[in-house]
Known about the structure:
The structure is a homodimer. By secondary structure, the first copy, chain A, is an alpha/beta fold. Chain A has 2 domains: 4-20 and 37-305, 3-Layer(aba) Sandwich (Aldehyde Dehydrogenase, Chain A, domain 1), CATH 3.40.605; 312-505, Aldehyde Dehydrogenase, Chain A, domain 2 (3-Layer(aba) Sandwich), CATH 3.40.309. Helix content of chain A is 43%, strand content 20%. Chain A contains 21 helices and 21 strands. Chain A has a 7-stranded mixed beta sheet, with helices on both faces. Chain A has a 5-stranded parallel beta sheet with strand order 7-6-5-8-9, with helices on both faces. In chain A, strands 3-4-21 form a 3-stranded antiparallel beta sheet, with no helix packed on it. The longest helix of chain A is centred in the N-terminal third of the chain and has 19 residues, at 150-168. The interface between A and B is large, with 65 and 65 residues.
Amino acid sequence: MSHPLLDKHRATLDGALNAIATRAYWSAYNEMPSPKTYGETAAEDGKKAFEAHLGKQFDLGQPGATGWAGGEQSPYGIDLNVQYPVCNYETLIAAGQQAMGGWQKVGADGRTGICLEILARLNQQSFELAHAVMMTTGQGWMMAFQAGSPHAQDRGLEAVAYAYREQSFVPAETTWDKPQGKNPPLVMKKHFEIVGHGVGVVVGCGTFPTWNTYPGLFAALSTGNAVIVKPHSNAILPAAITVRTIRAVLAENGIDPNLVTLCVADRAATQKLVTHKAVKSIDFTGGNVFGQWLIDNCRQARVYAELAGVNNIVIDSTDAYKPMLRNLAFTLSLYSGQMCTTSQAIFVPAGGIDTEDGHKSYDDVCADLARAVSGFLSKPEVALAVLGAMQSADTIKRIDMADSGTLGKVVLASTKLDNPEFPKAAVRTPVLLACDAADEHAYMEERFGPISFIVKVADTAAAIALSERIVSTHGALTAGIYSTKPEVIGAMTAATMRAKVALSINLTSGVFVNQSAAYSDYHGTGGNPAANASYADAAFVANRFVVVQRRYHI
Amino acid sequence: MSHPLLDKHRATLDGALNAIATRAYWSAYNEMPSPKTYGETAAEDGKKAFEAHLGKQFDLGQPGATGWAGGEQSPYGIDLNVQYPVCNYETLIAAGQQAMGGWQKVGADGRTGICLEILARLNQQSFELAHAVMMTTGQGWMMAFQAGSPHAQDRGLEAVAYAYREQSFVPAETTWDKPQGKNPPLVMKKHFEIVGHGVGVVVGCGTFPTWNTYPGLFAALSTGNAVIVKPHSNAILPAAITVRTIRAVLAENGIDPNLVTLCVADRAATQKLVTHKAVKSIDFTGGNVFGQWLIDNCRQARVYAELAGVNNIVIDSTDAYKPMLRNLAFTLSLYSGQMCTTSQAIFVPAGGIDTEDGHKSYDDVCADLARAVSGFLSKPEVALAVLGAMQSADTIKRIDMADSGTLGKVVLASTKLDNPEFPKAAVRTPVLLACDAADEHAYMEERFGPISFIVKVADTAAAIALSERIVSTHGALTAGIYSTKPEVIGAMTAATMRAKVALSINLTSGVFVNQSAAYSDYHGTGGNPAANASYADAAFVANRFVVVQRRYHI
Lengths: 554, 554
């Protein structure tokens, strides 16, 4: 039982299936905002489409509407004033459950085809979505385009591909023919039906409202579940645009659009939503407090949570000192360190490090990294494009605290930059602190934002041991090592296997520790406290559906 | 990187992989205790091997031994008097963790090959294990042989096959080559390592100490984890024999045997074991009280739980009345209803049912089913072979209560049979009760043992609705329907898809609703309260390991 939309997008699906099997480079959606790919007028049209939302009510035609809410504050200081429908959560749940029957009947092929069509349509909206992401999160334009649109779509497609692969293993039917010696065999016909667990809730975050939402959204949806998207209160628009498109594609294909809805809700309403007995999966990206609350209280659901961590890098030695510093400077600066993958702790031996440029003391490394960051950000157009704007006032407060020197010696102070295009934007450069390994209170909790510590450790072995302990106890999405010595790289590799974190080794060129590429890099391992799931692997999809069989003699 | 034992058992693995893909009939291990398969002296040798354990200390060479414990009481009344090592649980955990490194290094191929060798060796011990299962659980001989040995081994192999398939999707390495327009591509080498989550604990049950233990044991083991087997206090011997064989095969292959250990522990020690932070998965079969305790308290682990349920059958109509009654009689009698899959509630319309033999009133059905059961058990040799013995005093108490008529009208009273071979065995025939649908307190909780209710419902539609509600709220592993009407079968099918339970339709010949065949029938769906996991599907294995990657420029 194929489906016209599966046939239409077969090449895309095959590409994704091949990519998750090989984990080689592949992408379905062009990460460059190229007119050749997206159309000559795409940039202009997308900007207009975004602007058309501003100051308006964003209608979705959802049931249970009780009023309107909004209030997103743009980190770039522009007025958004979009109002979104507030809908009774129980009505949304009931409507989603009601829609699941038709979604089940269309089968894995139909669900996959429709999800692929949704992704293709979202891809056509890449500019509109990029503006929405940029203006709600404070990401720079290029990052908002790439991470917010094609990369997010790739992560969504990756989840669809995993889900398709797992669902494909379940045969629709079989004939079971058991020999009985000299007697006639026992013969049964058996049918196997894939059924979604129930309603999935995807709780979005304020910094990556599409990239961190699409994996769970498409994993739950393509495996037969209804999905309620609960966006972060300050990044609703990208989710609303996404949900509207999904609902349109569902309706075009004879599926009740209430299968997917947007739930704009405060904390109290969200808590009622996620603890409802019909909610069977929750995807969450955000802080430890609410994440742990979800895990503790939503016992009726499987919770896929990406939480806080302390990403770290061990510097032992290098034969490319300046490229290393440049690479680190970019990592620490990108989106002002407001990525869940940004390195927070950089471990440097007290005795310094060997480089191709001679020995560098711990203080040299501190000074040189500070210089690398400030040098990289010295051109305003580069700085503004890379840094973006501060997503939240809390992050600015954390920067100010770091700047005050209470957490460690300030090696590089944060500075405030003016953005001529967006005069109200809060733009801050990274702050670098020096501290001792003993100052665990300073660097051993997540300090979200452009705040990093260059931690003085006794030696490389101590640094590796410290890294392992941090990952095991506090979690991390990324770890790095710089070393020219195979035995050191081997020791760090072994430590990351025990602590279960992805390792980047000697990054000195155009790949950065905070980047993870769909289909190739696992985002999170699911094995340390920073995340109990990974984008994406079989575990991310396999438990979102069950198989209901029936059998009879023939 | 293959492994000699994978090569040796490749045909077995391929057979299992094909079977889980097609879910057609297949088995790796002969369910008939045939001398041709098992050897001319296997029956005799196995019995002697079993008897050699009696009255002895069962040494396993495990670390942390503090003493000996035992005390299993055979339902057949024979003296067992086997003593098992009691080991400090923290020592076992630490030893398991220590052994995991070598187990990781041997890779998925090596782990799979070694698990296949273990299963082959357990298969050679089928008679010994069957006697141990029979004498600790009260199963009849043939059932103890089949369910305890080849069927359990098949379920273990099924888990190994699922685990192998999922692990096989993870490439060991890739070259990631990303075009950069006119610039040279970004090229990285990436390595992907499969790492077990940690220590797995498998908590066995008293009725199926191998069949319900092997799936979790082999799923956790083959995905790279250490495993601690915590057997039911009255069914230790089958687990001890299994663990000894596993440890021997591990040691023969250069793996630290402390990877797998037996933990004989009381409830308090078990609670400390399963809540230890190093324990990352728990497989449990048993009652709701301890099962729910595990789910509530073992937050550091993934809990795969098979709990209580209320299995049920809807009788609407039939064109094979006597075969239907015979089929039901066998189901209700097998192992005295002490199976987690035995039907407890049989729903019959108040207005009776149409059959090829004319209309049968509700009372007719009650009387005829009672007659079918007593007729089937009228030959002592059949009755003793099918019924086995009562596994626990609690079950006998439940039978006595049912017999007293407090739960419903006694349609067929339980009788006590003498077993000349085992004079001390407690043998009881099933009790059948008649009650009204309104008497929910009677039939709507699991009454483990040979206690079934023929529940009078308004009509078939009400019966189907009641079945759906029971499955959704109390859980069930099995459901059945008898009907000659496609629309009724369709309605029941739809209800079981919503409630997520496997459905057997019109079973009138040699397959019974309480049987599930490895590779073909999913045991539990994982979607209703009776079990949050299934034997076996991808979800049963995919979350037992993580992938730790490393990457570097080339």
